[in-house]
Amino acid sequence: MGLVVVTGPPCAGKSTYVEVNRGQGDVVVDYDAIARALGAASHLPDGHIREAAFAARGAAITYVLEHGADAWVIHTSPRAEDVARYEAAGAVFVQVDPGMEECLARAEADGRPAETAGLIRDYYAAAGRGKGRGAVERKSVVVAFKADGDTEGRFTGYASTWTREPDCYGDVVAKGAFARTLKEWEAKGQPIPVLWSHDMSDPFAFIGTVDEATEDEHGLKVAVSLDLDNPKAAQVHRLLRRGAVAQMSFAFDVAEDATVTLEDGRKARELRDVSLYEVSVVPLGANQDTSIDDVKTAAETHLTAREVAALRALLAAESASEEEEADDNAGDTAEAAEGGNAKSRAEAVARITEQINAL
User: Fold this and answer.
1) Average pLDDT of the segment spanning 66-73
2) For a Cys staple, 141 with which of 2, 81, 204, 287, CB 3.0–4.6 Å?
C-alpha cells in the first residue's frame, strides 16, 4: 500500500476515513489517538501531554519514512518541508474536507472545546492553505445518479462548473481553465485515469478511465467507464448505484490563477489554467455544485429498499412454511418425496435470499 497522508480541517472525518480504509497491520499515526493514549481528556490537550503527543507523533512519522512501512499519517495542514519528506517517500495525499459549515456543525455536536471552531475557521481563512507547496491539489464534488440501461458501468456528469459561487476553498473556476490540459491528454493518446480515493499504490484502485472530457457552457463534462472486470471497480459501481458513495475528487496543479472580486464584493481565487492528473471516486467531498447525470447499468431491475425488505419477509415466511411441512412429513414414507421437494424449495429460497443480500 505504501504511505497515505490524510489532510483536512479539524472535524473533517480524517480518523474515520482512515479507520474505514486501513488494512490489517497498517500503521496509523493519529495525533488525537496518541494524545488520548497519553492521558488527554479533550481534543486540545496542553502542557506535557501535548508536547509528549507531538514528540511521539514525530517519532512515529520518522520511523514510517525510514522503514517504508505501510502507514496512514493524519496531518491537518503539512508544511512545505513536511510535504517534501512525504513526497520523497512516495506518499499519496488524500484530502478529507466536507466544508467549513459541516466541520463547525460536527464540532458543536461532538462537544469539542470552544477553540475548535476558531481552528476550523483559521484553516479555511489561511491564505494559500495546502496550495503552492509542491503537493497536487484536489477538489471534491458531490454527485447524483440516475439509472440508465444503455452501457453498463458508464456515467457522465460535470467535474467542474463555471459557477461564480466560491467553493469551500474560496475558489472559482474560469471557463477555459481545462482547455490546455485536455489538449495535452489528447496529444498523449492516453485516457485520464479514474481512481478510487486517489490511491495510486494499488493497481486495483485504478477503476476506470475518462472516455471523453469537454468544456461546454456549463463546465467540464466527463464521460467515465468503470472497468467492471476489476472487483474494486465493480464494488464502487454498486456503491454509486445505491448512493452509498456520491462524491468525486480531482487531482490537479494550478498553472495560472488570480484573485478576483465577485459581483457581491467577495474575494475569490479564480483558477484560469490547471493541469488535470486524475479523477477519483471518494467517500467524502466538499463542492456542492457539480453533478453526475447518469450511471448506466446492464439492467433496469433494481429494487427499492422497501421492495427488498418486503421480498425478504415473504421468502422468510415461505422458508419457514416449507421447513414446517418437511418436519411434519419426516416420518411418513408415502410423503417422503414431498418432503424432498420442500427441501429443494427451501434451498432455492436460500439461494434467492443470498442474491437479494448482494443487491
Assistant:
1) 93
2) 287
For CA atoms 316, 322, 324, 330, the dihedral sign is negative
Stated as kind and residue range, the H or E segment containing 95 is strand 92-95
Q: Is the pLDDT of residue 330 over 50?
A: no
Residue 240, amino acid: L
Copy the grid coordinates of residue 284. Answer: 467524502
- Residues 38 and 175: their CA atoms lie apart, in Å, by 51
Residue 123 pLDDT greater than 90, yes or no:
no
Paired with 209 in beta bridges are: 193, 225
If we measure between CA atoms, which residue out of 273, 161, 174 comes closest to residue 222? Answer: 161
Q: Which of 19, 14, 16, 29 is nearest to 70 (CA)?
A: 29
Q: Are 197 and 94 in contact (CB under 8 A)?
A: yes
Angstrom distances, CA of residue 348 to CA of 6, 106, 231, 248: 46, 47, 26, 40
Answer for the pair 274, 255: CB distance below 8 angstroms, yes or no.
Answer: yes
